[in-house]
Design goal:
Blueprint: H1 9-12, H2 22-54, H3 62-73, H4 75-80, H5 83-95, H6 98-134
Helix pairs in contact: 3-5
């Protein structure tokens, strides 16, 4: 009874005798996967390096410009600034970002469209209720 009974007799004879131990099998798969991951990461990092070289010219954000102005003003002005002042300047830099304004406008538009769809669905449901009661 060392052979499984649920297999047909033709399938029972197919099992090879010199199978490697499962641990060796998984170690081999792990090593293969590990080398593939390393090679993939090398290719990925090379592509990113090429992309960053081609996209060297970026516009500087207003926040970075403001930070540079603070650094250029010197150490005397930084002593006058408290942590709250620094936080306010940082928040103002984020608020002045035009991309943020566009994102907020798109989000507001999406919320308006969602509210209109909700109203339309409710109106349709009310109409179907009224029509079903009339019949």
């Amino acid at each position: 009874m060392d052979k499984p009974e649920f297999l047909p007799t033709s399938d029972q004879n197919i099992i090879p005798e010199n199978l490697p131990a499962p641990t060796d099998k998984y170690k081999l798969k792990y090593q293969q996967c590990k080398t593939e991951m390393k090679e993939g990461y090398k290719q990925y990092s090379q592509r990113n390096a090429e992309n960053t070289k081609s996209n060297v010219t970026y516009k500087q954000s207003p926040r970075n410009k403001r930070d540079e102005k603070c650094v250029q003003d010197g150490e005397a002005n930084t002593d006058d600034l408290t942590t709250l002042d620094r936080k306010a300047l940082l928040q103002q830099g984020y608020a002045d970002n035009p991309c943020d304004k566009q994102q907020r406008a798109r989000k507001l538009d999406a919320e308006i469209v969602a509210a209109e769809k909700k109203k339309q669905i409710v109106a349709e449901q009310v109409m179907t209720d009224h029509l079903s009661r009339a019949v």
